[in-house]
Amino acid sequence: xxxxxxxxxxxxxxxxxxxxxxxxxxxxxxxxxxxxxxxxxxxxxxxxxxxxxxxxxxxxxxxxxxxxxxxxxxxxxxxxxxxxxxxxxxxxxxxxxxxxxxxxxxxxxxxxxxxxxxxxxxxxxxxxxxxxxxxxxxxxxxxxxxxxxxxxxxxxxxxxxxxxxxxxxxxxxxxxxxxxxxxxxxxxxxxxxxxxxxxxxxxxxxxxxxxxxxxxxxxxxxxxxxxxxxxxxxxxxxxxxxxxxxxxxxxxxxxxxxxxxxxxxxxxxxxxxxxxxxxxxxx
Amino acid sequence: xxxxxxxxxxxxxxxxxxxxxxxxxxxxxxxxxxxxxxxxxxxxxxxxxxxxxxxxxxxxxxxxxxxxxxxxxxxxxxxxxxxxxxxxxxxxxxxxxxxxxxxxxxxxxxxxxxxxxxxxxxxxxxxxxxxxxxxxxxxxxxxxxxxxxxxxxxxxxxxxxxxxxxxxxxxxxxxxxxxxxxxxxxxxxxxxxxxxxxxxxxxxxxxxxxxxxxxxxxxxxxxxxxxxxxxxxxxxxxxxxxxxxxxxxxxxxxxxxxxxxxxxxxxxxxxxxxxxxxxxxxxxxxxxxxxxxxxxxxxxxxxxxxxxxxxxxxxxxxxxxxxxxxxxxxxxxxxxxxxxxxxxxxxxxxxxxxxxxxxxxxx
Lengths: 283, 363
Description:
The structure holds two protein chains of two kinds.
Chain A: H1 6-35, H2 39-42, H3 62-70, H4 73-104, H5 110-122, H6 125-138, H7 145-151, H8 153-170, H9 173-181, H10 186-197, H11 199-215, H12 218-223, H13 232-239, E1 241-242, E2 245-246, H14 248-278
Antiparallel strand pairs in A: 1-2
Chain B: E1 4-13, E2 16-26, E3 31-35, H1 42-50, E4 57-62, E5 65-66, E6 77-80, H2 92-102, H3 107-121, H4 136-148, E7 154-158, H5 166-183, E8 186-191, H6 194-200, E9 203-208, E10 211-216, H7 218-223, H8 228-233, E11 240-249, E12 252-256, E13 261-263, H9 266-272, E14 279-284, E15 290-291, E16 301-311, E17 316-322, E18 325-331, E19 342-346, E20 353-356
Parallel strand pairs in B: 3-8, 3-9, 6-7, 7-8
Antiparallel strand pairs in B: 1-2, 1-4, 4-5, 9-10, 11-12, 11-14, 12-13, 14-20, 15-19, 16-17, 16-19, 17-18
């Protein structure tokens, strides 16, 4: 908190904070007002005397109802949920083991291996989707959820590994040494001591991984083709924009509903998540 | 039968030779303290005994078993760490029970042993709490409790008191001593604090640069240090050292420099004789410097200028200028001295130490 006169607090704290909040929340507000706006208001020319872009005079749920009943939106939601959860679990499992090994075990090239894993995370997806498409085709996984479940970990595992590596390094080595003297094998020390202590880190890695796979666009666009296999991010943008016709109401309703699970997860785990990011292990 | 035997133990980290040929026998039920400045290899030695650090060469025996290749869990030891290393997600009870659970001890037995240890340490009321809800001293007790419930053959302590504040440290030191008397188990204790070493240890091992300097009972180290390092390390305030030139005078040997000149007493003379015409280091403890009275032989007296007076209550520390060197004297609290005073001090011949200038070994 900034000390001093009231105006200082306003100038250095509240006004910048307000600007930031506005900047972050305005898109959501825009999605909300647009999704409940009847077509009559939606397609009104901007020169019209009763043009009100920032609020809706006669809110309606018709777009949301249309979205849920006349499109495959619920199917897309379920697809995305399945893909995001499974790929997150795979990535967390690998990330926990890899992160633990890289931070704790002594083996040749451990350091350069860690850096190598990080570098793979830096390779852009736009570069990788072409060779990956070949692999997906060879395994005949195209147009199935498994195409994404198996390709998302290519960027989620390096990410989880790095985040967890840092977290494991912050856990005092003595905890594990003490457990090993107490009679635990390395495996048991990891399961009973290190992993429970690392729960905040594992949760935040999981949340990040979930969000990344929920929002992923390019692999989903390339590897899935039929409408009923699509994920929310691709489904909404490809099925609700037909040629140059934008179904703005449904588009915005889809975007709004699609962001709910992520928002829900963040709000639910926010405390663990912050603890995980600040890397605090309370002894 | 739980002696610990260390035979020519070495530790190399890449090209750093951290522990150099340590030989040590820790007898059954003995409390041995490893002491030395940081980086002297004391903790590495302890960790090799614990099995947390691989042994580069040499042997460690616990009881009659060579434990070099045994996992820490199979060595029947318990260790207390400097940062306590309590499992933060477990209650005090579970922390203490963990080792027994891992060893598949029967539930009733675990309960009995945890309660027994908790009673000894006075932490029975905290058994349900989490470590973060405890104070430093309480955490320390839990860490001790976790070690004693296992009834191990050997206790290993790695600077267990250095995270506590000064007052609590003194209190826990006494408790540790009592605990050892009660449990009567072999213990190896690492510290950098010589006071802890002197008060706790049945025997003390002074280390420097990976090499054992001297092993002995506390008073043995204090009275007859084998070299200048041990002499300076043990005792507080530290021993005064002065470089003196030995000359063969008419009445026997004399040793002196710009500030003091003394007649070397006959009992030391024979040892010092080969050094006639050379420099040696003379050491004298602050508490062995006494203000001279008329009866002291003048050949053992010198004059000093008082620079700083530190009144500690039970004693007064005087920072003295003697010729070109500074010395510290610890005198009775009733001595009235102030800055700028010239005082006459007497040396007691049997309390003088002499060290070779180059090897620093005691003469």
